[in-house]
Amino acid sequence: MVGKGDPVDIAIGQVAREQHGIVTTRQLEAAGLSSAAISQRVRSGRLYRIHQGVYSLGHDGLSEEQRWMAAVLACGPGAVLSHASAAVHWNLLRPLEGSIHITVPTHTGRKRRPGIAFIAASPSGAGRLSAPKVWKSAL
Higher-confidence residue: 25 or 138? Predict the structure, then answer.
């Protein structure tokens, strides 16, 4: 059993704290876990798979913020929370049912993910207003 002072757990906890308790496979591996160790933590209930390569620590009862973060991380580098989902985050709209809106730099190489609506950003960025990146992928 891994103790509270284990350096791997400390590293995972630091990343998770900054991401609402959500971590990626890449981040877990960077902290020192192997694929087998990640699988063992899933089986034991220490990690819960939310999307392919994205996990929550210790539980699967996600808050809205955790669902948003998991969706952004699942969509990879350059992904941001956007459209109606970002409006809910900024309290401009009431919480909505349905897919989480994520803007990605391009659809190339991205797989469809349940519960996530992809919006492809303009390649040139011409004619777009500058907007704050509400939830940016930390990959």
Answer: 25
Residue 15 backbone zone (phi > 0: left; psi -120 to 50: alpha; other: beta): alpha
Angstrom distances, CA of residue 23 to CA of 50, 99, 123, 126: 10, 20, 28, 33
DSSP H or E segment with residue 43: helix 35-44
Share of the chain above pLDDT 70, in %: 81
Taking 60 as the threshold, does the pLDDT of residue 130 lie above it?
no
| Residues 6 or more apart in contact with residue 18 via CB below 8 angstroms | 138
At position 95, the amino acid (one-letter code) is: P
29 vs 127 pLDDT, higher one: 29
Largest CA distance in the chain: 55
74 in Cβ contact with 52 (< 8 Å): yes
DSSP code per residue over 57-73: ES-----HHHHHHHHHH
- SS3 assignment, position 38: helix
Which amino acid, one-letter code, is at 51?
H
User: How buried is 37 (Cβ within 10 angstroms: 0-12 exposed, 13-18 middle, 19+ buried)?
Assistant: middle
